[in-house]
Design a protein that fits this description.
The chain has 367 residues and is an alpha/beta fold. It has 2 domains: 103 residues, Alpha-Beta Complex (Aspartate Aminotransferase, domain 1); 244 residues, Type I PLP-dependent aspartate aminotransferase-like (Major domain) (Aspartate Aminotransferase, domain 2). The chain has 12 helices and 13 strands. It has a 7-stranded mixed beta sheet with strand order 1-7-6-5-4-2-3, with helices on both faces. Strands 10-11-13-12 form a 4-stranded antiparallel beta sheet, with helices on one face. Strands 8-9 form a two-stranded antiparallel ribbon. The longest helix has 37 residues. The N and C termini lie far apart (51 Å). Bound molecules: pyridoxal-5'-phosphate. The site of pyridoxal-5'-phosphate (PLP) has 14 residues, from helix 3.
Length: 367
């Protein structure tokens, strides 16, 4: 390689190392070591086709992918399921909405103002009708507005936010289902659990009850991002759905000798290994410990923000939102912002010392 090109790579490496130290605003854990997997980058692996079927492309990791799906099926309390490892939360949401549209072609999609932009984009891509519902101040869907808007429909597709992007607000799936039942509406509920799909199941039991979003409710599909709480250098995720519904979307393709059930044709076979490795090395107990650690960090940050009287502080488990600081602080700490709100997502790679330094910057600004 030319010297110039080598230098460019070195420069990128150094820059990323520095930026990692102040990475507070985006919900992606940065504490991981996947070096035992590097050797699998020697192969042109590809999980083309359905994860539950072999295909003529044999350099693949589908048995690892199935183990990852089984982990999530157990976590979300479903026995008869189908799903696959996606390239992130957006693809999972797209699959959920696609399946919903095939089952309810005439239905309108309902989602709240605080919903992630991927839903609006996917609804547009799929050419579906949609209806925006108001959000409450904490970011949760406004149930009264939802009922008012949905009650004149015979069929509805509803996106429940299991952790909104900015405030981590959680829509009450059982309440949404009750409203739909009250008005005898045929429905499909999809959960966008991009970050909190890996957080809520590891909260203490008593805190989980009111936030229940798994398949013990009337949910039909769930999308989770893998690179968020679990942590991965390559974006990934899972989508998991009730099996009898997914059977609607199956086309046999002779070229690969498998059913074409996934949105992408060629699919990443390395991220299932990353996911699998994370699950095997951390395990349920480890994830529980990580969530407890992150909640403690979030509690600490809220206390510190309140101590100095910083405005608009709100917490939803590991997400702490507050009044937007100066552009200088936003840039330095890579804070995500929306209008006048900014947030910190507390993740395993963060420490109290780091949050102390962040608070020092805010205190200076307060003066
Ligand atoms: C609530 C929510 N849904 C979906 C997504 C999209 O996920 P991804 O970036 O993995 O496509 C995000 C990303 O931040 C999100 O916060």
């Amino acid at each position: 390689m030319e010297k110039e090109a080598q230098k460019k790579l070195q420069h990128l490496y150094r820059k990323l190392k520095i930026l990692k130290k102040t990475f507070l605003g985006y919900p992606c854990d940065a504490k991981f070591d996947y070096s035992p997997l590097y050797k699998f980058l020697e192969f042109p692996i590809n999980n083309v086709g359905d994860p539950f079927e072999p295909s003529t492309y044999r350099l693949q990791t589908k048995d690892f992918e199935r183990e990852v799906l089984k982990f999530f099926a157990d976590l979300f309390h479903i026995k008869s399921y189908w799903g696959y490892v996606t390239n992130g939360g957006t693809e999972g949401n797209l699959y959920g909405l696609y399946l919903a549209r095939e089952l309810h072609p005439k239905a309108t999609v309902f989602f709240s103002e605080h919903t992630h932009y991927s839903i609006k984009k996917n609804v547009h891509l799929l050419g579906m009708k949609s209806c925006m519902v108001k959000s409450q101040r904490n970011g949760e869907i406004d149930y009264t507005d939802f009922e008012d808007k949905v009650k004149m429909h015979r069929e509805a597709i509803v996106v429940a936010n299991i952790g909104t992007t900015m405030m981590g607000a959680i829509d009450n799936v059982r309440l949404l289902a009750k409203i739909l039942e009250r008005h005898h509406i045929r429905s499909y509920i999809h959960a966008d659990a991009a970050l909190y799909g890996m957080v809520l199941p590891f909260l203490p039991q008593n805190e989980q009850k009111e936030k229940l979003f798994d398949f013990r409710t009337k949910l039909n599909s769930i999308a989770v991002s893998g690179h968020k709480f679990a942590g991965s250098p390559i974006p990934c995720g899972i989508v998991i759905v009730r099996k009898h519904l997914a059977q609607k979307l199956q086309t046999y393709i002779e070229y690969i000798d498998a059913h074409d059930t996934t949105l992408s044709g060629s699919r990443d076979a390395f991220t299932p290994l990353i996911f699998w490795y994370r699950i095997k090395t951390i395990g349920l107990h480890g994830f529980k410990k990580q969530v407890a650690y992150c909640t403690e960090l979030a509690d600490f940050l809220v206390k510190e923000l309140n101590k100095i009287g910083w405005p608009d502080v709100m917490q939803s488990s590991i997400t702490v939102s507050f009044r937007r600081p100066s552009e200088k602080i936003i840039k330095k700490w890579e804070l995500a912002t929306q209008k006048d709100i900014a947030h910190v997502i507390c993740l395993p790679h963060e420490t109290k010392e780091q949050l102390h330094r962040f608070m020092e910057d805010l205190k200076k600004e307060m003066k």
